[in-house]
Write a structure and sequence with these properties.
Elements: E1 3-14, H1 16-23, E2 33-37, E3 44-48, H2 56-63, E4 67-75, E5 91-94, E6 100-106, H3 127-144, H4 152-166, E7 173-177, E8 182-186, E9 193-196, E10 200-204, E11 214-215, E12 220-225, E13 228-232, H5 244-255
Antiparallel strand pairs: 1-4, 1-10, 2-3, 2-4, 5-6, 6-7, 7-8, 8-12, 9-10, 9-11, 12-13
Amino acid sequence: MCELLGITSREKLYANDLLREFFGHSDLQPDGWGLAILDSAGKEIHKEPIEASRSRKLKELLENRICTGRAIAHIRKATIGSIDDYNTHPFSGKDITGRIWTLVHNGTVFEAEQLHKYVYYQQGSTDSERILLYIIDKVNRYINLDSDLSDINIRASLIEKLILDIVPRNKLNLLIDDGEYLYAHKNEAGTLFFCEENATTILSTKPLNNGTWKELPENRLFVYKDGSIIYEGVRHEHSYAHDDERMKTLYMEYAAL
């Protein structure tokens, strides 16, 4: 199981210790690491297809002071897709307005015909990258129909609808940043937690540090701005439960490609 980390805060916070603890789990997630610092001028994304604890690049990065109010991170245990740069999270892309969307995913897509055509457009081979391409494509279509996605309630409703289109029979634990807001969704019990304090929210696959952690409610979309929830979606019924036989079948199908 991959692990996700999200930071959203009204004020920038010193994140090095938090990141060190998160990336310290990489012995169980050895197939890549990534960090997107999203409130920097350059929207910095750092990633490598190696175990985080073995990365000289990450070590050097964490030796410098990292202060941020918006960031997402990922450590990967590969299921679908080879271990290389193109399959390492986070994934990022622009819509037709220039808005940058960044996504990390902990999960597996077993069935989603909507994503099939993006196999021909993606750089790598993960279902996670296809999810991002699908979202950006649909956002562009709405913009071309003169929909006003500057309204966060309309934008969040669209992202909620797109997640609901994909989530049946699949595992979709997602953190998505759109340049302003952080979207969080999970549909498996015990796989995403949050810690809130002083207009700061940390989301993590596993509780970190000594804060007060609670499990994020499953099967609904949450949208954060500056550390606070500004949108909560309607609960759906598409919970995911791990199935070894389904995973084995998926591995065999992928190996035959």
